[in-house]
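COMPLEX REQUEST
Ligand: adenosine-5'-diphosphate
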Amino acid sequence: MSKKLNILMISSEMVPFAKTGGLADVVGALPVHLKKMGHDVRVVIPNYSMIPHADYGITPFIDFMNVWMGTKEEYCRVHNTRIKNDVPVYLIEHDLFFNRWGIYHDSDMNDYIDNPKRFSFLAQAGLKLAENIDFKPDIVHVHDWQSALAAAYLKIWHWENPVLGSAASVLTIHNAAYRGIYPKTFYDYIGLGKENFNEESLEMFGAVDFLKGGIFYSDLVTTVSPSYGEDIKRPFNEFGLAPNLANKGKNFYGILNGVDYDEWSPEIDDNIAANFSKDKMLGKKKCKADLQKRFNLEVDETIPVIGAIGRFVDQKGFQNLAPAIRLALNDMRIQFVILGSGDSGLEHFYRELPSNCRGRAGSYIGYNNELSHIIEAGCDFFIMPSLYEPCGLNQMYSMKYGTLPIVRATGGLNDTVENYDEASGSGTGFKFFDSSPQAVYYTIGWAVSTYYDRKEHMKKMISAAMSMDFSWDKSAREYEKAYERAIENKMNYDKWPR
Ligand code: ADP
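STATUS: Structure written out below.
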């Protein structure tokens, strides 16, 4: 094993405490696996008021901690608990900032206007806590715009600090669409010095850009899949970070997220009607019948069922799926189930779909973890028509459950699914490239014709898909390498004359 590292993670989300997306899953799982590899990992998150302390064994830890921001001193308290593998988690209590209805926005979906204060404070408080408990990090690992500025604070404020001064920083971008761009009026509070407010680092056309600043000051930047890394580095892409990421050279690349197979394995999943495995597939038939019953579909094992799960936001492409699936349900002998919520127009469409296609379509509008397992296990195909996808988890779950993914070839979907080859029958799913309803429709047709006409190929692909290994152990080893490289970069940086 390589050298044992002290790793401080600062994040705005973490499973099981607070989650809005994949960021929370990564911060919940990665530290556990790094700890298993022998590293000392500590995680800092906000003490949001919705986190039930009693459920997670959270207890008071530090009664009073002061944190200097640019224009004032903030006071907070710290709580702590431990998760799997004894990883310590510290929760920063600052009622004015974190005692609210939501994580980033109110119940009307309006972003909290003081988000730049809340999260620059979190970044500084995370570093201050390390100092207070005398935890000398080799690595400070930050996630998305919310904690990105810790990398800037390290280089601008703490470079001579005996505890923090030698720490290298790694920033992971989970979704480049969320930049954290805020009016310059917040800059004094953030407190990173006028001389550092420029287009190269923290400024974006006169505003403060958290993610851009994080990219500039980090010793290494990662994102959650190699293809997404290439996408957001490509000149003139829609995220606007191409020059900044390209400037990082070899110090920006993608590491695929892992899957928590304790949660997502058909052999042990207790949410589903019957367990099954690659060599004992009988249970999958039971799961399919159970799914068909639950969604009022005709119970018939010969009809292929296509499933979809996700947030109804533009990114996920459900607006392209809607006309395609309507047509496919007319033209093909298939069934369709969907679980999700979000855009009200799409909610309406998918809610109404079953009444227009009785016995052939089912939907559940809302969030339901148990149903998501039931869909993964019971379907034959799982469709993800995303316009972009930093990593995506459902396609990896699908493969484990022998449910072949039909995906748009973008980001993590492109990296994890191997396209079907009609000549040899190899592959783990079906890919399309165009982001249009037509592409979705024709690829559904391709998958369905394979189901009916090339049964041997289906068997081969299902077996190949179920054998794929996207475990966290593999990803954690790649993060370990990234940390080592960041440390080297930091040592070289320290040698520069200033
Ligand atoms: P993102 O983080 O962009 O939402 P991912 O595919 O990385 O997309 O992860 C989404 C996770 O949330 C998956 O585990 C998915 O099954 C789950 N999920 C999304 N919507 C729902 C829902 N309505 N009900 C249950 N689980 C859901």
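REMARKS: The first strand starts at residue 6 and ends at 10. Residues 282-468 form a domain with the Rossmann fold fold (CATH 3.40.50.2000).
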